[in-house]
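Duplicate of #3305? Posting structure anyway:
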């Protein structure tokens, strides 16, 4: 990854410069979390941690960077000198990539010199908001497709090269099987996949010639695009002619792709033609502005589709294009003392959770079924039984009692300075882990429409601290 230290909002530098002049020995603790799930879902698939680690390990400022900042005439020389000799000196804990996470849970926490932790806000949110958003959309799309593979092929519609490349990575974390993006395939070890565009067909005198020339070049990768002219009158019959010629020459055809029209009816017609010609194993791929709802509808109609190519609606998460994760100060550490901090607002929904925290997934005793998460202060031991409070400050019936559970901590140590403490697995290992974690949470929570609420609680101590700090902050402005 390129050095992204200058990828920040100006006010991060302004605050950091201010801290350098006024606060020199305090540490900051910041949490990343979100309040709202895209597409009215119930959870987000956490992604982007590897790029966070790579960015923080390489965080530095070049002479040109410092010279540019000096030219703005906003910053003191002692701050610019600090940046010129910058050394990353923070600790990072995070929930592993691929984990389904819920609203208000700290999915990443960074602790270190206040000046440093302030500088990372924009960069870390940029990485984690983007990849978690795309991984979440991919999870919805692959959920709709069931056991039928999804190829990510949205690079042409992504918002820039970085979004295309890291979006493809996130899509695989969310369940996709391959990508058409060769750079992403090379960079992250993802199978590269793809067929042809309509331009190939149009470049030859007729469709049959185009198919034959493709088969000459790629006799063992003959997947033919059949909708340039007419799927059932021209495309599939011509594909069958070429498939027959390939079979006679000892090659096995791959299948066809349909990219326009009434895909359900065209796929049914194509399947009949292919089967009647003896090509029962030829796959039918669908593409053309697909998303989870279109795919689910096609399969519910009985469309005989074997896999899907999904582009713009995946790589941009076009139906819900923002994951509004936030980066909030949770504590100041001064001379070893932890001073919890809280953001209060006229909207209770924006009330933050103060202090150093840990997130636990709760499982029913003697089973491996998760039934709730609980956010606790990091030094707490969970009680059995325990009265808990819903983390959503506007929820009704907030108080519950839980017992007979096993608790698994979700946040783990990731970095201590530039020393990496956590494993950073490949994308398919993350995908496998994600599928295992999804199997543990209730099926009703995973529905695409009107998913059941998965409870997220606070411990009594954390709830009391939130209430106390909120009242103190309100009193301070009276």
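Output from current build:
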């Amino acid at each position: 990854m390129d050095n992204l230290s200058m990828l920040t909002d100006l006010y991060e530098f302004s605050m950091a410069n201010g801290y350098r002049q006024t606060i020199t020995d305090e540490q900051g603790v910041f949490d990343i979390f979100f309040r709202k799930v895209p597409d009215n879902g119930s959870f987000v698939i956490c992604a982007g941690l590897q790029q966070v680690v790579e960015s923080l390990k390489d965080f530095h400022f070049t002479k040109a960077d410092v010279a540019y900042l000096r030219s703005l005439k906003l910053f003191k020389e002692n701050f610019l000198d600090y940046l010129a000799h910058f050394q990353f000196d923070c600790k990072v804990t995070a929930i592993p990539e691929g984990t389904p996470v819920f609203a208000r849970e700290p999915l990443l926490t960074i602790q270190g010199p206040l000046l440093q932790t302030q500088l990372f806000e924009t960069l870390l949110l940029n990485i984690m908001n983007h990849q978690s958003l795309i991984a979440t959309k991919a999870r919805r799309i692959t959920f709709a497709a069931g056991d039928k593979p999804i190829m990510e092929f949205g690079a042409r519609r992504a918002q820039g090269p970085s979004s295309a490349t890291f979006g493809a990575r996130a899509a695989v974390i969310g369940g996709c099987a391959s990508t058409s993006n060769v750079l992403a395939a090379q960079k992250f070890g993802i199978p590269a996949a793809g067929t042809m565009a309509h331009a190939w067909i149009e470049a030859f005198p007729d469709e049959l010639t185009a198919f034959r020339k493709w088969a000459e070049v790629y006799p063992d990768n003959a997947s033919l695009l059949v909708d340039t002219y007419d799927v059932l009158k021209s495309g599939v019959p011509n594909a069958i002619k070429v498939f027959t010629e390939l079979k006679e020459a000892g090659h096995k055809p791959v299948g066809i792709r349909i990219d326009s029209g009434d895909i359900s009816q065209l796929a049914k017609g194509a399947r009949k033609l292919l089967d009647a010609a003896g090509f029962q194993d030829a796959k039918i791929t669908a593409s053309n502005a697909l998303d989870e709802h279109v795919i689910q509808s096609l399969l519910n109609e009985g469309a005989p589709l074997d896999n899907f190519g999904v582009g713009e609606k995946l790589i941009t998460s076009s139906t819900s294009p923002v994951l509004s994760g936030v980066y909030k100060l949770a504590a100041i550490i001064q001379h070893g003392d932890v001073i919890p901090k809280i953001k209060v607002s006229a909207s209770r929904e924006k009330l933050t959770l103060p202090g150093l925290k840990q997130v636990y997934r709760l499982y029913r005793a003697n089973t491996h079924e998760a039934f709730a998460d609980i956010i606790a202060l990091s030094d707490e031991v969970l009680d059995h039984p325990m009265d808990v409070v819903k983390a959503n400050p506007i929820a009704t019936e907030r108080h519950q009692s839980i017992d007979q559970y096993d608790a698994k901590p979700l946040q783990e140590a990731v970095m201590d300075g530039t020393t990496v403490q956590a494993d950073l697995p490949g994308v398919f290992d993350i995908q496998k882990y994600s599928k295992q974690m999804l199997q543990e949470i209730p099926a009703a929570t995973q529905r695409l429409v009107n998913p059941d609420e998965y409870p997220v609680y606070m411990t009594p101590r954390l709830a009391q601290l939130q209430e106390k700090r909120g009242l103190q902050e309100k009193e301070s402005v009276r």
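Confirmed duplicate; merging threads. The chain has a mean pLDDT of 96. The chain has two domains: 10-134+321-476, 195-305.
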